[in-house]
Automatic annotation (TrEMBL), chains A, B, C, D:
Membrane-spanning parts: none
Keywords of this entry: Isomerase, Manganese, Metal-binding
Organism: Phaeodactylibacter xiamenensis
Keyword Manganese annotated: yes
Protein name listed in UniProt: Sugar isomerase
This protein's record includes keyword Manganese: yes
Superkingdom of source: Bacteria
Amino acid sequence: MKLEATQLAAQNAPYLDTHDRSWDILRQQMESKGLNTKALLQQLSDLQIAIPSWALGAGGTRFGRFSFGGEPANLEQKIADVGLLHALSRSAGSISLHIPWDIPEDPAAIRELAAIHELTFDAVNSNTFQDQPGQAQSYKFGSLCHHSAEVRAQAIEHNLEVIRIGQTLGSKSITVWLADGASFPGQHSLRGALQRTQDSLQAIYRDMPEDWRMFIEYKPYEPNFYSTVIADWGTSLMLAEGCGPNAYTLVDLGHHLPNTNIEQIVATLMMKGKLGGFHFNDSKYGDDDLTVGSIKPYQLFLIFNELVYGMANNTANNPPLAWMIDASHNLKDPLEDLLQSLEAIRIAYAQALLVDQEALADAQARQDVTEAQEILQDAFRTDVRPLVREARWQDGGALYPIQAYRELGIREQLIEQRGMHTIATGL
Amino acid sequence: MKLEATQLAAQNAPYLDTHDRSWDILRQQMESKGLNTKALLQQLSDLQIAIPSWALGAGGTRFGRFSFGGEPANLEQKIADVGLLHALSRSAGSISLHIPWDIPEDPAAIRELAAIHELTFDAVNSNTFQDQPGQAQSYKFGSLCHHSAEVRAQAIEHNLEVIRIGQTLGSKSITVWLADGASFPGQHSLRGALQRTQDSLQAIYRDMPEDWRMFIEYKPYEPNFYSTVIADWGTSLMLAEGCGPNAYTLVDLGHHLPNTNIEQIVATLMMKGKLGGFHFNDSKYGDDDLTVGSIKPYQLFLIFNELVYGMANNTANNPPLAWMIDASHNLKDPLEDLLQSLEAIRIAYAQALLVDQEALADAQARQDVTEAQEILQDAFRTDVRPLVREARWQDGGALYPIQAYRELGIREQLIEQRGMHTIATGL
Amino acid sequence: MKLEATQLAAQNAPYLDTHDRSWDILRQQMESKGLNTKALLQQLSDLQIAIPSWALGAGGTRFGRFSFGGEPANLEQKIADVGLLHALSRSAGSISLHIPWDIPEDPAAIRELAAIHELTFDAVNSNTFQDQPGQAQSYKFGSLCHHSAEVRAQAIEHNLEVIRIGQTLGSKSITVWLADGASFPGQHSLRGALQRTQDSLQAIYRDMPEDWRMFIEYKPYEPNFYSTVIADWGTSLMLAEGCGPNAYTLVDLGHHLPNTNIEQIVATLMMKGKLGGFHFNDSKYGDDDLTVGSIKPYQLFLIFNELVYGMANNTANNPPLAWMIDASHNLKDPLEDLLQSLEAIRIAYAQALLVDQEALADAQARQDVTEAQEILQDAFRTDVRPLVREARWQDGGALYPIQAYRELGIREQLIEQRGMHTIATGL
Amino acid sequence: MKLEATQLAAQNAPYLDTHDRSWDILRQQMESKGLNTKALLQQLSDLQIAIPSWALGAGGTRFGRFSFGGEPANLEQKIADVGLLHALSRSAGSISLHIPWDIPEDPAAIRELAAIHELTFDAVNSNTFQDQPGQAQSYKFGSLCHHSAEVRAQAIEHNLEVIRIGQTLGSKSITVWLADGASFPGQHSLRGALQRTQDSLQAIYRDMPEDWRMFIEYKPYEPNFYSTVIADWGTSLMLAEGCGPNAYTLVDLGHHLPNTNIEQIVATLMMKGKLGGFHFNDSKYGDDDLTVGSIKPYQLFLIFNELVYGMANNTANNPPLAWMIDASHNLKDPLEDLLQSLEAIRIAYAQALLVDQEALADAQARQDVTEAQEILQDAFRTDVRPLVREARWQDGGALYPIQAYRELGIREQLIEQRGMHTIATGL
């Protein structure tokens, strides 16, 4: 299933007038402040977020999974789903594969299909946190950190295999996320496990193509854990530095202890030129994988404020970031949920672009704390939705993506085509 | 010092056109959705927040206190400061006294002064968390919970004295906040301390005038603590119910463990008709007493969403709430800081008033989680500042209170009148 | 499979001398302090912990489940497993069933089997957090809190069915744990959901036999949640009081926000006579369901200290508590894991029994904080293992249960009897 | 005031028999397991903890400070107090000065006095978190991170001055702890502040004597903060590496976000050879500065387990650690409180020394999680107090330090000598 430009144009038509009016007002308002609205539209248009191949079906918890109907049953259908998201939002221009859930059998055909949907392949993701049927060694007690050299060798080889698959699709980076850790004090040597993980990552890095990047994810805990091997950004950075210049830290918004100041981690990593990528989601308690911006939109704005600042003051040559949504869709239609996340990301980015950096720097230099807060909050309180909408419309997307999705009856068509009880591979 | 209407009118004049345009746009937008803007303006105008008498000077931490200049040195000057806040914002129409920091020597004169500034006296606050010079018994090991009957009797009598003082000013409620607790396991009997606190509160309640209300605050910890006697809303509610119908729970936004869902506590207490009041502030880690809305504005909105819902569905006869700002001003000019807090509160309230409750209830009935989120976020993402500004302007306040405060040179005048090194009584 | 007394006697024989010596030393030490060792042994012997029927197989996380071999495949085998635990430890004298995972087909036979293993049936547990095949209504959006009366009616009827099943086995209580809640702000009305839950619980309570008790569990969050309906002890207590005298709050050690003072909750509930039961486990981050005492043994001791105090000062007629282990066994042999938990519980209880309550009360009265801490820590630092071992030995159990379990080759025999790839029903 | 050996001998005499018996039993028990008790006693004897000069008086919170009577009024008296602690415990063999609270006027005399009490001078501590009277620049908005070069220069020079003072006393290290940070988003550039802090630390490091070490402390938050510049160990390590080989990270147990796995940070830093020192205390909620071991003794044991392992497997040449107690004494007699802390530290160290490292490594290699936990808990559950006591007694200390302190009437003598209302300089 593929949305055609004419469909969207027809869908947008009745709302265009209202949008134009609100965009006009906002545009004038911004221009009166000296903002370059053309440049803003371009920056928004350039922000493309990868959709992970495993997040297009209903997620689940330990209590069960409520299938949604019309879920994509194979990689081709997943690409079609991301294509739909991109057609509607013009901001989901790439897809991030998870191996072994989505091994392409005919890479050339898959690349062609992606191109039809105007999609590229972003970072590939390895999986050594689950045992696959027929696997020689079990990851029950870890993978890259495992006490046994055989298990580590298998996990290293899996990562290299993932890279090879990624190469066939044009990916240029691999994200390594581990569930390695211990459930109990004493289960393994904390130092030994870290050292072995370092060695294993170096082995992968050594055989990674020169034009690839490795993103090392961190996470403080999983359910039923006492410790994870890569618990925080400090450990991830240490491991990345231990690998080499093409290894970076990847930040997932949900992978932090309570009250962590995530925007500060972002600032620090960009100062070191070591921020590789971002997994977006939101959370109230732990790694809740909720819709982006559904719980802490101001934190999201503050993070984007650091990203905007970091990209504009890139003294350490931090490379362009790999952006991805990493949420779980248990109750909402996954496609609607992702559209909400995409919108929240663009809104936060637009707000951050509105921050008057010069005035802010000036207020900071004068220790004018009141004024500094006013500047940030003025940007955050601005209703930037007409701007975000205009950028999307200029790129050929839907003015109101969720509304369009519903009015066009997309889920109904997917169910008709694919059936009610398909189940997407993935978590 | 008192701001005159003509001063503010002159101050507003050059900005009125711009405001009118933005208000016009927002008004039309709201009215096209069927909203009654007149009623909205009235609701905003009615929301009056008490300013505590101890928060008008620079706050401090254990590392020191940086005095701000022109701080109010006595109760009269504090009233003048709140009068300034009210004149500028039209939303700070009452003052909350703390005894013994602000004992009025001539209550009638103080009431008259307050009336001149259009201020009333909200809840009075007792203090049994510090020893006063010459005090017979020490609160080092607690007050209402103390093992010794003499200490408890002194603390009970202090609360009754605070009520008597409040009566002379027209207050109708007392807020009881305790720092009672233990630094170490075993220091006191957890049960014994709670039982004695219950008994002490009942003793105060028995002698409280019939038309008064008692607000019982809770807080999970203080620095250097192992436990507090009234640790959470459950304990506070239990104690309030143990006292009688005029005892209520008071919620301070900063008094919760990490990740607490505060809006749910609000909803629960309103269902029971037992929410007495609110202390506004914001925090990232603990009881940080930061400017309202400076860290988690969406949480503030969600709380107001419950309050608006609760007030409109008041099946348990919850009385009107006592609202107060309880922040600490260590770096900013206290008056500017309070103006920012007042603005953030009105913004959150205005956003909550915009929530389409009917559509929300309908989406909830259909389990349409996507739609329910859209409804809430549509309200939150709306730039309601023109609405808040219009309500303030209609009430005779400043369009841009902080700007007016600066342009009118108020702090400079206060310093001139009061001197650079006055220190406000209080924390 | 059933352990015979002679087997255990033979197993214990070589270690008896060493044990006797260490017990002798400890006994003299305790008696020199005026402790009644006979009474202590009796109290320890009386502490019997229920084993939940779902915890005898390997647990799992969202990443998979590593089956252990020889897992019980039906209720009979589960009873046999608990029988083994009880034979070895003499402290696992009851079993707590989970419906529908363990519906007894022939209750009389099941009771007889349990009696052979000297087991009784403790609280039964309902399950409205998962959909069962063929179920008319789905719990995707809640059960007792659901917006739809049909769903609530189904969930109420399920609870009553669980009670009826429990009656056939001699159970006298039901534990209600709900995963009801919302993933997103706005998903449901917080107040409406709470009110409906109250109504549903009252409906169950009304039809519960008069000699039964209802235990209402609370929990602040699940993964992918924004709120749970019964988030904390305050809500649970409110609901229990709304039901009647036979409804109580149940505390699960893992169901709290970070840094919660659990022992204080225990003290408060016992003061109200409303503490119904306890689910033991341990955790470092969230609801980790780790082995009891594996992370925070001092907290466990402090909790038992409150329990011992509460049972000795039972002014509010709190009934005897229902004790249960609620842990998940992902990496260890479930039976070994449970033996470690049982040991940790008895150790903490024994330490709490050693606390010199009179001296403690005296130190508290004198505000001697140093001394109060010394008294608690003296008890905690005492090596009470010989006492715990002696109680077990006198009751016919193993001196060293895990060692006995291994030396007797129990797991190997279970695998031989049941096979390597059985999977226990349950989570 | 100085305790004489004869005083202590007389004090110990009546308890010696009982101690000897319990020590004998434990010694035999340990030797039967192949432990070298002589070596253990030596290791315990070698563990010397610095007492900070500011912790000998009553601490305070924002609510007040309850003076204790007989507090040391000058550096000489502080040294005498530490001398008392060392005489009683034989484990407080050094003192850590805080400048400017304790500037020695006659260094030679101070060194001589310290020598009389068998004390050395450990790390000196600088203070740029408070303004001193007459100071040219204020630290209200930071010190080493400040936007203004003048403020930074003053803070750098202060640190160098502290080093020079330390040199006169024989210190060889400086601990830098900053309260630099921001109360609000936008207050300062997160990246700018970090960069300036790096530059300032490098400036201090450059001028530090070659045989000195710099310890960089981290802390995630202070009350009323939004961010601290050196928030976590990752930032501290980055800064230390940016300075050079003699800069290290210092861990304070209370300086972590909720649920942080501190023992893992210790293991990681030792693997890098970058763990410089330790500030001991305990906490339930935040940086509570409670008595060591009063809340989480098992965590303390697990930390020591990593330290023991790290010192025995020191592949990265981590230097010997600087140990210090950093607690606050608000309710207990400060000297009694410190004696409890010293005891808790030695107990945890002794327990960690008992861990059978060989068996543990073997269990880990076999993934025998049950056994690994048994090994750790066997050590922790052992009552090592006779061992700790014997080590102290052999070194000439008191068998029961707190009891001795009380029976010898030390506090009463201090009050008699120094008066009831002295106040120690410090926080």
